[in-house]
Every structure is written in structure tokens, then in C-alpha cells.
Amino acid sequence: MIAGAPDTAPKRMTPTTSYELYRKRSSDWMIVSAFDEREAAVSAAESLLETYPRAVVKVVAERYDTFSGETVGVVVYRNDLKDLPRQPSPASQAVRPRRLPQPTAAKPKPENKRVLLVSILVTVISGTTFAALFGSIRYISRFLG
What we know:
Elements lengths: L15 E10 L2 E8 L2 H14 L5 E8 L6 E8 L11 H4 L19 H32 L1
Antiparallel strand pairs: 1-2, 1-3, 3-4
């Protein structure tokens, strides 16, 4: 580098780290607050758990590299409901009367389409045959007499 010339080479800056406190609501994670120090974030998470003992929280260390523009997150503290002792709800402790199964009425089975079609066909053919026979007898009786 030449003395007195401006430095044009890109400078590599140190990565910055922040700590984010998240709380789980339903199935989504919501950010509660952000901190510059890990101890402060973990302390806030534990304080939140004292206030809401059934809450699910995590602290994520977000490391941002200003040179590459990349962010990497690592979970540094987390509790889960599976780690907490199960407390039965008051509704589950209540004695509920047992419902007996109700008898169901027998449902008629739907007729087979083939049987229905054959029945209709027999009715039409027999009706046509009867009409033809009756017409023939009437014609013969007029012819003979």
C-alpha cells in the first residue's frame, strides 16, 4: 500500500451476536425480546417461566456476519412441555357419568341394482304380453262372433 493513498481493500468486520428470546404460542414461535448478552437472555427466559410455568421458551443466538451477510441461529436455551411434570387438568379429575351405548336400528340394505332392473323388465314384458294376449282374445271373439 502506498503511503497517503486511501485504503480501497474491503475490510472484514467481526461478526455480531444477538440473543433472541422466543415463546411458543399454539404452534408458532413469537419473539419476546432481544439481548446483547447471553446471560441476560437466559435470565429473562427463566423469569418468564417463573411467571408462566407452563410456557415453552427458547433463546437463540443469532450470529450475523457483516462481510458475508449471512445469519446463523443456534438455540442456546430451551425448555419443553415434555420436560415439565404433567399436571392433570381439573376437568380430567371430575367424575363423569359413563354413557351407555345406544342400540341402533337395523338399516335396510339397499337393493341390488341388478335385481331392481330385472324386476322392472319382468313387469314390462309381462304387462306387454298380457296386453297382447288380451287384445288377441278380444280380436278372435269379435271375429268369431
